[in-house]
Amino acid sequence: MFxxxxxxxxxxxxxxxxxxxxxxxxGMPDMTLYGLxxxxxxxxxxYMNTDPVxxxxxxxxxxxxxxxxxxxxxxxxxxxxxxDDDVAIQFSHLRDTVKADGLVSFCYGRYQWDGExxxxxxxxxxxxxxxxxxxxxxxxxxxxxxxxxxxxxxIPPQGSIVLGRPQDGDLRRxxxxxxxxxxGGDAGPTKRFLDSYFAIKPWFALTNVDxxxxxxxxxxxxxxxxxxxxxxxxxGELQDLALxxxxxxxxxxxxxxxxxxxxxxxxxxxxxxxTAGEPIDRLTYGGFRQRLFLAVRRTIIVLDGExxxxxxxxxxxxxxxxxxxxxxxxxxxVVGSDAGRIFRxxxxxxxxxxxxxxxxPGRGNLRLVVxxxxxxxxxxxxxxxxxxxxxxxxxxxxxxxxxxxxxGAATGLAAGAHGxxxxxxxxxxLATIDLLGRVVPSSFDGRPVGPVLRVARSWHNFGxxxxxRG
Length: 470
Known about the structure:
Layout: H1 3-17, H2 34-47, H3 58-71, E1 76-82, H4 91-99, E2 103-113, E3 118-127, E4 130-133, E5 138-141, E6 162-169, E7 176-182, E8 190-209, E9 212-218, E10 225-231, E11 238-243, E12 249-254, E13 259-264, E14 269-275, E15 282-286, E16 291-296, E17 299-303, E18 310-315, E19 320-326, E20 331-336, E21 341-345, E22 351-356, E23 366-372, E24 375-380, E25 385-391, E26 397-404, E27 411-415, E28 421-426, E29 429-434, E30 439-440, E31 453-455, E32 459-460
Parallel strand pairs: 1-32
Antiparallel strand pairs: 1-8, 2-3, 2-8, 4-5, 5-6, 6-7, 7-8, 8-9, 8-31, 9-10, 11-12, 12-13, 13-14, 15-16, 16-17, 17-18, 19-20, 20-21, 21-22, 23-24, 24-25, 25-26, 27-28, 28-29, 29-30
């Protein structure tokens, strides 16, 4: 019943062993004091709201781990991805997360066929400390005691306790790929499938500086901030940029350009994903299915977040100036520069309502940032003031206040890793602002930053389904 806290504590010890001893509360640097090990697991369980009988909710596990890392001042985010309607769990997802220095824990569900569908009966979570693939099998290593191994080091297949093979088909829905697990063979009507995972990932940000995209990232185990410069795949200015919520992928578009470009953050290579009929203006990811939303003049287009295949579109009566997705309500927020209103659309692009918004001071494009469920910040480039909006119990959005930056006019507005801070460009350098407008420290402070800035955030699509516990 404590598998989630234990799997997470394994990685906290890894982080502590490699330099950030504040990752664990008790017993460092001596990791042989097993009485204190259980105290650290209990601390993690408290953050995760673990029940000694019912276990841990998957969403509580990600939220609790993210909160602990923030409290311990560890520069990291936590992402969680579960199998769902056309959201696959594939070998490549685990591989690419590890390649991006993610510390992965995988979860498998125990399923039973009821004659019509597979019902999930229970789940279990393990730390992933090795991964490899041959033509016929995948080896997932979950052995304990491997804290000295770097997360990307290869392992031999001998001794691994879980073997898997690609399993294509409809576990509960069509168009999904899972890994079926074997531990001495599955007997009877139940089978085990690797149906979700979560990972501690280096905190990172992307911004445009001098015709390049700069990738800043900070390692959880030592706090060292590094950067890589990647030439943009076009000659013009960067129009917009979006980060995939769980995969090491970013997409962008050129000012006045019709091409959607994808950047692989593991090897920093570009790939053209599609060409729209008109110039692409705005981009954002969102929703449990991790869709990609494009604003093309007055049209909102929703794409599959991985395959970039179209899932729907809607034409609005105004040009779109800003897009953001509210994960709390699962609504797309749209602002039109001429309309003076903010509109809510559901995941199927049905228009829910629209509310007047204050006239944002400053010059340049509007910036729309969701800082938490139902909480929105809106402002313009080169302004020292933004407005805060809130979604009430009836779902309607209203203004609740404004925020003035003590340090002056800013560009490149982005939400922080956990929603309680904003990141902006002040005089061409990155600065962090709390929700009272004060400058506060962060790992990326003082780094060169351009007008387009995106900062990675903790995220999961586990929801509150009671069957997803471990």
